[in-house]
Amino acid sequence: MNEISEKPVENLPWVYLDHNILNVLVREMENDFKIFLKTNYQIVYSEETLKEIERSKGYENNFIDVLEYLDAIYIELQLTDKFRITDKINWFKVSPREVIKFKKENNDNSSSGILKSMHQMALKMAGGLKGESFDAIIDKQEPPFSKLMETIIIAGKNLNSEEIKFDFVALVEAFKQQFHETNEGLKKALQDNIPDPINFRGPKEFREKIQIGPRVLNNIKPPNVIKQIWEEISKSPEIASAGITLNRFLSISKNPIHPGEELTIYEKVICIYSVLNSIGYYPDSDMEKERRFVSSTSDSTHAAMGIFCKATITMDERFAMKVQAIYEFLGIGNQVLYIDPNKMAD
């Protein structure tokens, strides 16, 4: 899988397709909409696209065939030499089948444990996993994180040469310490703010506390959607008395893992998407259920990957409204194009 360039392919605008659009395109190999997309745009897909395809059991090849027909290119985030996310991408003009094969051959599963434990924590915050405590879920994160760090040390020893000199052991120890301190701080914050952690109902409790939700927020119209939302939210005595700023409310005021470093635009999109869901702005339903939670998490990643394209096309109104509000707030000029599924059916 070879990196080609960061220049646009044939000068066509890059367009990111939500999975529901791909669902329509797999129904028939040739249609006017599909031909229009292929002729006028460079279609883009990401690892999250491939994850959704993988969950479409029995139909994987149908989706891959569509991406190949569209001559879609694959994009992925660039990481720094310290494995931190950037707002830059690599892109590859390569078959999705080759990407899948490459990922399988080069995946040592060293991070699967920590990703699973972090997923459990996020699901708990969404109101799922009734009967489990936050402390127990947080504590489960440390062993897989330590295991992941061990693999980084081994990889670092293998990479170090006369040309590359880097103290991976010191870096890993710093990561482990930061991770532990962050977890302990999170435990205390949750203990101080959640009276019944075992039966925590997630966003529903927050909406009840500030007495606001979809009925109010979904009537807000552009422009300045997020600023209007903040005007409504900040009226709550709970929020006003805490002295919370808008950026802090959106979870973008500081980097929780690397204090002193600003979050990337990519990370900010994901954070704000989660907050909008929680407070009830065109929220995803049944987030406490595993399947719906996974779907919503996937949507937030699609929203973040969409910043690298000229436009994102979707048939999910809730997704479109949240992403439009986020892009507007962050000054991202990319378009979010919503297609009414009823009109598509016509």
How many DSSP-defined strands?
A: 6
| Spans where pLDDT lies below 50 across 5 or more residues | 1-8
Q: Can you list the strand order of the major beta sheet? A: 4-3-2-1-5-6
Structural Rg: 21 Å
Mean pLDDT: 85
Main sheet: strands, sense, barrel = 6 strands, mixed
Number of helices: 18
Give the class from helix and strand content and strand pairing. alpha/beta
Please report which band the strand proportion falls in: under 5%, 5-15%, 15-25%, 25-35%, 35-45% or over 45%: 5-15%
Our measurement of the CA-to-CA distance between the termini, rounded to an integer number of angstroms, reads 40 Å
The SSE order reads EHHEHHEEHHHHHHHHHHHHEHEH
Question: In a nutshell, what does this entry contain?
Answer:
With 346 residues, the chain is α/β, with parallel strands linked by helices. The chain has a domain of 93 residues. It is built from 18 helices and six strands.
Describe the overall structure.
A hairpin with a 5-residue loop joins strand 3 and strand 4. The longest helix is centred in the middle third of the chain and has 26 residues, at 168-193. Strands 4-3-2-1-5-6 form a six-stranded mixed beta sheet. 28% of the residues are buried. The protein has 346 residues and is of the alpha/beta class. The chain has a domain at 109-201. The model is unreliable at 1-8 (pLDDT under 50). The two termini are 40 Å apart. Helix 6 (112-125) runs antiparallel to helix 8 (142-159), helix 15 runs antiparallel to helix 16 and helix 15 (265-279) packs across helix 17. It contains 18 helices and six strands. It has helices at 19-25, 32-40, 47-55, 60-69, 96-106, 112-125, 134-139, 142-159, 168-193, 203-210, 214-217, 225-233, 237-242, 246-249, 265-279, 290-305, 317-330, 341-345; strands at 14-17, 42-45, 73-79, 85-92, 311-314, 335-338. The chain is globular, with a radius of gyration of 21 Å.
